[in-house]
Amino acid sequence: MKLIFVVAGLLVGMFVTTAMASGPYLGAAGGVAFYHDGDLSTGGTGEIQYNPGIAATAALGYDFGVLRGEAEFGYRNAKVDTFATFPANDMDTTFYSYMGNVYWDFKTRNITPFVGGGVGLLHGRFTDHYNAFTDSAIGYQLLAGMGLPMTRHLNLDVTYKYQAAAQKFHVGVYDITYASSNVFAGLRYSF
């Protein structure tokens, strides 16, 4: 019987918190992108390696209290270090992402840790001095971080995002895998 009261109290608390904290928000973040070494496949196999790059995101979302949902646009760019076994100083890659994310917030008094995930579309652009190749793929990301309230409406978020493509990108005669680890710092303004 006590368990029923405890569960009922938790549910009421969750709904009260959700009702008090709900509302739309805008977010923007910048950070560092660490592309994972990718596999190259064509007649043979090889590897593509990258230097650290830059990353930025912009998001429009709605805070339901414990859960948040958002539409996110992302940008990542990095120089290619080696392509197969050749140095590739003049090559770079840019990935644009269009993701739908869901976050689970663990609200406390001073900070809000969160975890989440997202799915969407990744658009990759591979360029060198002579060529530019583009391709798109379904992508996903896993997210974890924490929010620090700065004011009643403004949060500072620090977020780790693992992003990957569910399929290979077709670049000329090559098929290339894509995954990256990204560290962001950003602001989230709630209305």
Automatic annotation (TrEMBL):
> InterPro entries attached here?
Beta-barrel_OMP, OMP/PagP_B-barrel
Domain named Outer membrane protein beta-barrel is located at 10-187
Keyword list (alphabetical) reads: Signal
In the UniProt record, the signal sequence range is: 1-21
* SUPFAM superfamilies, A to Z: OMPA-like
The question of whether Ion transport is a record keyword is answered with no
Tell me the domain of life: Bacteria
Q: What is this protein called?
A: Porin family protein
Q: Which organism is it from?
A: Geomesophilobacter sediminis
